[in-house]
Amino acid sequence: MKKISLFVLVMLVMLVSISGLTSCLEGGGNKMTGSDFGVLTTGNGKALFVINTPSMGPVYDPQILEWITTGEMQVNGCYLLSFEIDYDLPENSSDQVAANGYQTILITGKNELTVHNVESVLTDTSKVLTGEIPVINGFAEAGAYIEPYLIVPQAVRHPDDADLDWNMSYDSRTLTEPEEEQGARYYDLFLRVVQTEESSKSPQDIGYYNAYQMRSFLQMAAEHEKGMLGSSYSSGTSTFRIRVNYAREIKDSVITWQNSVQPIPIAFFVEE
């Protein structure tokens, strides 16, 4: 049975990331604070649970087990974390980190991101959905891919008391016909947002971090890529790009579609 491993070839610029760490050296300590995205997963034997992050790899906080017990965190949950890391702790020595397979942090804040499925049945892109609103930014040049989620900042204009339904979909029938430009192949996704209730409040620009379950879509694209490469697929690794299309303007029942400025390069490796 073939096993496909997927990862972002070039990490997207993070709006919040470990690169934004600030040092706290009072009293000679070696502490830093920062923020990052993370997905809570089962551990590797050294810890029951760890959080996978795009910038630091696996991290661990002794509070995680308590939070799972109380329902504050859940396995496979996706989070925006604020944290502190003390490099002087024995468990954060290079030898211990190598032995454990993770760094130890202190989580000081956590916000769970809403996870959306990516649907394999494409909505009719020529028709406006009931309650559909335009997207200000469907895919900013920031975010991260943490298996199995693509995490991106997005923005729409709507009243702050109105609920939204986010829909990301693709056409599984045409997935084997990616658009090719200048030697690069693009697999298209379509983002649509529906305001599910009326509101008397004035709309305003509101930003979100959303997580999309991408595993099935990426695996299908990777399988097709492998088939297209045929005998030239020798190293076991190749790349393709995904592009997010979104309804930038809706006027007189006509949608003006726009796509992400920076398509996402995805690398994949297939083990026979």
What is the chain-wise order of helices and strands? EEEEEHEHEEEEEEEEEEEHEEE
Runs with pLDDT <50, length 5+?
1-20, 232-236
Secondary-structure-derived class: mainly beta
Percent of sequence in beta strands: over 45%
Radius of gyration: 21 Å
- The averaged pLDDT comes out at 81
Q: Give the helix proportion (percent range).
A: 10-25%
Q: What is the general shape? A: globular
Amino- and carboxy-terminal Cα gap: 7 Å
* H/I helix tally: 3
Please outline the major beta sheet: 13 strands, mixed
Strand tally: 20
Describe, in plain words, how this protein is organized in 3D:
The structure is a single chain. By secondary structure, this protein is mostly beta strands. It is built from 3 helices and 20 strands. It has helices at about 65-70, 95-100, 215-230, and strands at about 5-10, 20-25, 30-40, 50-55, 55-60, 80-85, 105, 105-110, 115-120, 130-135, 135, 145, 150-160, 165-170, 180, 185-195, 205-215, 235-250, 255-260, 265-270. Strands 1, 9, 10, 11, 12, 13, 14, 15, 16, 17, 18, 19 and 20 form a 13-stranded mixed β-sheet that branches. A hairpin with a 6-residue loop joins strand 3 and strand 4. The longest helix has 15 residues, at about 215-230. The radius of gyration is 21 Å and the shape is globular. The termini are close together. Mean pLDDT is about 80; it is low at about 1-20 and about 230-235.
Briefly say what this structure is.
By secondary structure, this protein is mainly beta. It has three helices and 20 strands. Strand 18 and strand 19 form a beta hairpin.
